[in-house]
Amino acid sequence: MFATARTSTLVLLALALSIPIGCNLVPQQTLRQSQIRAMQLAGQNRQLNQNNVALKSNLDVSNQRLANMQSERSLLQQRYVNLLKQQSPLSPDATRRLQALKKKYPLFQFDPQSGVSRIGEDILFQSGSAVVNNKTATTILKEFAAIMNQGDAKDLNILVVGHTDDRRIAKANTRSKHATNWHLSTNRANAVLVSLETLGIDQSRLGAAGYGANQPLVANSNEASRQKNRRVEIFVLPVDAVVAQWNPDINRQ
Q: What are the Cα distances from residue 165, in Å, to 159, 207, 224?
């Protein structure tokens, strides 16, 4: 009986010792798994943070590029606006003579405040053409060139700017020579420039640009308004006026 009691005591002792050991194994394994998962999540979180930093950096670069482009666009637009609002560099004598030219030819417009002359394309060119072959237009340009080659006016520069209405070029024959309104406006400005050069204005004083349909005087709501928007403008500029500058150190190929 003593042996049986001793055996029972040993069994109970073994059971008592084995219970804590079994209970401790489960929490330790779970804790280890949790630690591994926590480390994985921490690594994923670090990667996400790095990705967010990279995305923010790329976004900042893109926003800066966009801001630079908008700034450049605003600067160019302001230069053009300033050009439109400029005070006339013409002398009183040249202004008087151009006003007389305006009175003589009503189709020739002249603003004495800005020094800008304007000629409707309908008098300068036939439809779809960029050749100055109208006798009255040639006479106007000849007298304009004579004024610009006398007195103080001969020291001034001239910028010829072409404009169109908003209608796309429809005729195939015209489209073969002027693919778009950009081409038509620029080609017509060039034609007037070449005419002025032929009439005696030194080419170093001349420049040309085309704005297509993008600088209308009035809304293109009907044919009368479109006719006003089809025009060539002649800007008289002081010698130091900067409209577009070429820097050979930057642009050399």
A: 20, 22, 11
3-state DSSP assignment of residue 220: coil
The total number of structural domains that make up the chain: 2
Direct distance between the N- and C-terminal alpha carbons of the chain, in angstroms, rounded to an integer: 112
Whether the Cβ atoms of residue 201 and residue 158 lie closer than 8 Å to each other: yes
What's the pLDDT score for residue 34? 76
Which residue has tokens 């085309």? Answer: 210
Q: Same domain for 113 and 230?
A: yes
Give me the half-sphere count of Cα atoms (radius 13 Å) on the Cβ side of residue 157.
Answer: 14
Say if residue 76 is in the same domain as residue 98: no
Distances (CA, A) of 4 to 13, 14, 15: 14, 15, 17
Instruction: Express each pLDDT in 111-166 by its tens digit.
Output: 998 888 988 766 777 766 677 777 888 899 999 999 999 998 998 999 999 998 88
Structural domain harbouring 2: 1-85
In a domain? residue 36: yes
- Residue 177 amino acid letter: K
**Crossing angle of the two packed helices 135-148 and 181-198, in degrees rounded to 10:** 60
CA 182 to chain CA centroid, Å, is 15
Question: Are 149 and 198 contacting, i.e. CB atoms less than 8 angstroms apart?
Answer: no
pLDDT > 90 fraction of the chain, expressed in percent and rounded: 26
List, in order, residues 6 or more apart from 152 with CB less than 8 Å away: 90, 91, 93, 94
What is the residue whose two structure tokens read 């007195």?
151
Identify the band that residue 16 occupies on the pLDDT scale cut at 50, 70 and 90: very low
Written as one letter, the residue type at 178 is: H
Q: Residue 143: which CATH number?
A: 3.30.1330.60
